[in-house]
Amino acid sequence: MDTIKVVGKGNGGIVQLVQHKWTLQFFALKVIQMNIEESARKQIAKELKINQSSQCPYVVVCYKSFFNNGAISIILEYMDGGSLADFLKKVKSIPEPYLAAICKQVLKGLIYLHHEKHIIHRDLKPSNLLINHRGEVKITDFGVSAIMTSTSGLASSFVGTYNYMSPERIIGGNYGNKSDIWSLGLVLLECATGEFPYSPPDQAEGWTNFYELMEQIVQQPPPSAPSNHFSPEFCSFISACIKKFITYMFTCEFQCECRHFHS
Questions:
Q1: TM spans, by residue (predicted)?
Q2: Furthest-apart CA atoms within the chain: distance in Å
């Protein structure tokens, strides 16, 4: 493998664009240094197990993983469009028809993870949704995912990105698949408006105190899509995603909202 460039950093390691010397095919090589805490090592072990066993067109493919010079190296499918976060920086906001296409693919990926692999992602955000030149969107980065151990599919651990964390997770209660749907709702609303759905006290400084952000998520009404800028279908779908303290989301009502938005 020839290293081309560094394309990302996070979760204790870096991601490089590499090219196979013989086939000239591009891959993403994620290198994670092992001088980290035991809790982080366990998260990485879960990521490897989940990625290598996942076979879904809406989840980034993991081809191989190995140990080398005190680091874990993971060879992943290369998504040449970067992340949704990268794309948002360029375009500021995404039109509703394109959001519907993105949403449909992410939901299919989540359905696979939730029902086939029994996994809650727990860190769904724009930087963990990758894009390629064909317009495909895939879920990546299972460093904080957990295999649900109880038959009801609930968990009580506190990991993930605070900004997109559901209220039931913030207060340390039980949560299920719905926590990922909450995160998806915030991601879509941010993509639609070009702004993170929760407004900080000082707009110029942004969120400098994550405790204030968590307090607002728990105590204030959920954000909503402005009805004067978006279709009733999109507004209803966002409201269905961003509901507080619901542990299971793929109900008939929610599926109905999905069909209306994607049609």
A1: none
A2: 57
Cβ-based neighbour number of residue 60 at 10 Å: 22
**Number of separate helices (H) and strands (E) present in the chain:** 8, 9
Judgement on whether residues 221 and 152 belong to the same structural domain of the protein: yes
For 225-253, the pLDDT digits (tens) are 999 999 999 999 999 999 876 655 555 44
Q: How many C-beta atoms surround the C-beta of residue 85 within 10 A?
A: 16
| 19 strand-pairing partners | 2, 26
Q: Which amino acid belongs to residue 126?
A: P
Residue (of 67, 60, 75) closest to 25 by Cα position: 75
What domain range is 72 assigned to?
2-77
Cβ atoms within 10 A of the Cβ of 6, count? 12
Rounded Cα distance between 140 and 59, Å, is 6
Distance of alpha carbon 126 from the chain centroid: 6
Rounded Cα gap, residues 75 and 73, in angstroms: 7
- Tens of pLDDT, residue by residue over 190-237, are 999 999 998 776 665 666 677 888 888 888 889 999 999 999 999 999
- What CATH number does residue 116 fall under? 1.10.510.10
d(CA 104, CA 258): 8
Residues that are catalytic: 123
Q: Which amino acid is at 145?
A: S
The annotation status of 89 as a binding-site residue, yes or no, is no
Taking CA atoms, 20 is separated from 26, 72, 75, 138, in Å, by 6, 19, 11, 22
Query: What CATH number corresponds to the domain at position 50?
Result: 3.30.200.20
Count: domains in the chain:
2
Q: Are residues 32 and 123 in the same domain?
A: no
